[in-house]
Amino acid sequence: MKSHMTSGLFSSRTDEWETPKDFFQKLDDEFHFDLDVCATPENAKCKRYFTKEQDGLKQEWKGTCWMNPPYGRQISLWGKKALDSARGATVVCLLPSRTDTQWWHSYVIAHASEVRFIKRPAEVRRLEEQCAFSLGRSRIQRKRKL
Length: 146
Known about the structure:
By secondary structure, the chain is of the alpha/beta class. The protein has 4 helices and 7 strands. Strand 3 (about 65), helix 3 and strand 4 form a beta-alpha-beta unit. The model is unreliable at about 1-10, about 120-130 and about 135-145 (pLDDT under 50).
């Protein structure tokens, strides 16, 4: 029998998940985000944000960007957009650590300045197998737990 946590991780009921405020705040204190590139008015983490209707994949990302994209089939498009945008912006991404996928190796491992593996299931909903990584800050990759 699947646990409540596990069934939520592998469910297709929704591919949109709000970033917990306390988790985001720690990263915001460090990076000082200007733009949430995929949000709703109810869950936006920055004053400036792109909604589904605005389609963050079609927008120009500038400044220091936060990305917690929908975790569905288009996740690789978000990874590519983050990498392309990192040429002129810093992009910090919250993504599932799907190390067996092509997008993980093409966009995260090959280019991330830093990878942080997260394991805080009691504190951070749905993030037990997640990672946060940044693009555009440096070419040195460091791995550490949050």
